[in-house]
Amino acid sequence: MKKAFALAAAAMMALSLTACGGSSSSETKAESAAETEQAAGSEEAAAGESDLEYVKEKGKLVVGITDFAPMDYKDDSGNWIGFDADLATEFAKSIGVDVEFIEINWDNKIMELDGKTIDCVWNGMTLTDEVKSSMSTTNAYCNNSQIVIIPKDKADQYQDKDSLKDLTFAVESGSAGEEQAKELGAEYTPVESQANALLEVSSGTSDAAIIDSLMADAMVGEGTSYENLTHTVKLNDEEYGVGFRKGSDLTDKLNQFFADSEKDGTMEKIAEKYGVTAALISQQ
User: Fold this and answer.
1) Rg (CA), the chain
2) What crossing angle do the helices spanning 83-94 and 266-274 adopt, rounded to 10°?
């Protein structure tokens, strides 16, 4: 009798546990379906948003930059100027808003953009595969390359890629220069900006730097702050673009502005001011 009772009790307990498990699984599936539906709804809402209207409602276009002459740098009064800065100012005017420049950590540019701390990344940004997959990018508007910076008195020793292998480099973290250092298999130190990379070489903390050729032309050599430095090996060819959030309608708006500003001479006038005319890419 006891044995029969024990078997019956065990069977009832097993049935009870099975029922509980089934209930929990159903609830989990329902919750999962609800979460999926909510996420899909959020994505649809985001896709339906207009970045252009968002910026107009705020009354300002927030541009993420770094200290990078001749594209973005401060004048004696502390105002941001440069080819990119002036062009961004003109674009903001064309859509009826003010412009605000925020200096960002270049390594965090995608996070800053997606988090809406900034509305675009406009700072001599190389159109790498990572950038193009993470942002909505404009047509290319400037040619550039990554170039090696070395003390002038040592330049003769470093005229090709093979000669660079034993050097220690300073590069901007998250930049195209860092990618080139990786490709070289070189030892390197990531720093906050390309300006800091130049400072590292000038002070002797690093043997060399890899920076944008446009910056090298403006910042290195006779008549600059770094007369003791020079550029040697050109490592690649690349193009600059501007990045907005994925799906942003500001991308097409800026592409049209590029085309219009080339036609009316605005782009060339600004380029002449900052010595980057030869780097311009036709927008027609």
Assistant:
1) 27
2) 160
**How many Cα atoms are found within 13 Å in the side-chain-facing hemisphere of 11?**
6
Residue 254, SS3?
helix
Structural domains of the chain sorted by starting position, each given as residue range(s) with its CATH number in brackets: 51-143+239-279 (3.40.190.10), 146-236 (3.40.190.10)
pLDDT tens profile 268-278 = 999 999 999 99
Closest Cα to residue 194, out of 106, 109, 84, 88?
106
- Tokens standing for residue 57: 């409602």
| 175 exposure class (CB count in 10 Å sphere: 0-12, 13-18, 19+) | buried
How far is the C-alpha of 259 from the C-alpha of 96, rounded, in Å? 18
Instruction: Classify 186 as helix, strand or coil.
Output: coil
Task: Give the torsion through C-alpha atoms of 216, 99, 110, 183, to 10 deg.
Answer: -10
* Model pTM score: 0.77
Give the Å distances, CA to CA, from 43 to 48, 53, 242. 9, 18, 23
pLDDT in tens, 40-68: 333 433 445 899 999 999 999 999 999 99
Cis ω before 70 (30° cut-off from 0): yes
